[in-house]
């Protein structure tokens, strides 16, 4: 309680969570922010917080800052940080592989795909060297007939690198190859990533698995195989709907991808339907000026007129078919027209 009882104060405990309702400017450069106090027991908020904790994790290490720079889009800072670390590290240090991985992600984000490929293959090579004392070779990791699940606990104890780290490298390489339009090779690496995730993840339905299904769907669409594309996108969507908060951007990205398949098939009504679902999620979960929102608006504006045209053509076709049916039912239909003269 305040010492002066005439004071009007509202006290909040440390860690309160507020929702930003509105931000408006006043004079002299002062801004007013309207906040709404949220309860930690709010179901949607609690679900989102639990997911964010699991996604971000509680452990941090020397490479976390470089990864954060990349996430924030501070690419130059990420590159500078990782390059300085590499000067101090040896190749048998796991952090070296992580540095090259981040450098690959940065190069990918900056559309420097050849450099991204070099960095990701370097990360893969370093991780394979670190994992060899346990498995001997990559064949022992990806061959079902050789690897025994009984050695997995031993692997986790003796090596900081797991087959899932190799899967991450395969996934990153596959994404770069898509941009380079080397689709068959991209599909090869994404399938290898999917195999490792299905084998070594603690449960079959995992968000990481949905990521690979999503990537494979993208490869198939690039290869004009719409049926295989939508099958994999649907698998990704099923997992994400089950494991993620309902307004998670990853769900929105899958809706958008499915919309793209329908647009490819010239089914503009379904395309617009899925684009709108993606838009609803993006608006609820991302800043107003986020690139995903800009992209999905462009998608809707492109498809909506085509959808209206398709509906008009369908209506005209149905009207024409009805006219044909009417003529067939009334072969002398003209005599029944109100303007026709009847014989006396």
TrEMBL record:
Whether Repeat counts among this entry's keywords is yes
In terms of PROSITE patterns, this protein maps to: TPR
InterPro entries cross-referenced by the UniProt entry: TPR-like_helical_dom_sf (IPR011990), TPR_rpt (IPR019734)
* Keywords per UniProt: Repeat, TPR repeat
In the record for this protein, the TPR repeats are positioned at 210-243
Does the record's keyword annotation contain Nucleotidyltransferase? no
Know the name of this protein? Tetratricopeptide repeat protein
Originating organism: Didymodactylos carnosus
């Amino acid at each position: 309680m305040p010492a002066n009882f005439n004071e009007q104060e509202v006290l909040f405990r440390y860690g309160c969570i507020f929702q930003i309702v509105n931000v408006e400017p006043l004079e002299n450069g002062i801004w007013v922010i309207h906040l709404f106090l949220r309860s930690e027991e709010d179901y949607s908020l609690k679900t989102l917080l639990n997911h964010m904790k699991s996604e971000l994790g509680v452990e941090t290490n020397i490479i976390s800052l470089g990864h954060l720079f990349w996430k924030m889009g501070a690419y130059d800072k990420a590159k500078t940080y990782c390059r300085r670390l590499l000067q101090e590290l040896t190749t048998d240090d796991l952090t070296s592989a992580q540095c090259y991985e981040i450098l690959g992600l940065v190069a990918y984000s900056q559309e420097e795909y050849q450099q991204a490929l070099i960095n990701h293959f370097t990360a893969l090579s370093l991780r394979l060297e670190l994992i060899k004392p346990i498995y001997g070779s990559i064949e022992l990791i990806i061959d079902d007939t050789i690897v025994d699940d009984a050695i997995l606990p031993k692997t986790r104890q003796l090596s900081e690198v797991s087959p899932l780290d190799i899967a991450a490298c395969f996934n990153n390489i596959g994404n770069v190859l898509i941009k380079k339009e080397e689709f068959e090779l991209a599909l090869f690496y994404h399938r290898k990533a999917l195999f490792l995730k299905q084998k070594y993840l603690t449960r079959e339905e995992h968000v990481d698995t949905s990521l690979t299904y999503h990537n494979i769907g993208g490869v198939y669409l690039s290869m004009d195989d719409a049926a295989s594309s939508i099958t994999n996108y649907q698998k990704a969507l099923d997992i994400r709907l089950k494991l993620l908060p309902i307004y998670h951007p990853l769900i929105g990205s899958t809706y958008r991808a499915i919309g793209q398949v329908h647009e490819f098939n010239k089914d503009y009504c379904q395309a617009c339907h899925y684009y709108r679902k993606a838009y609803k999620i993006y608006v609820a979960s991302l800043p107003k000026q986020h690139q995903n929102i800009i992209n999905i608006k462009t998608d809707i504006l492109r498809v909506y007129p085509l959808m209206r045209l398709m509906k008009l053509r369908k209506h005209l076709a149905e009207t024409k078919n009805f006219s044909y049916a009417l003529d067939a039912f009334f072969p002398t239909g003209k005599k029944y027209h109100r303007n026709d003269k009847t014989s006396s």
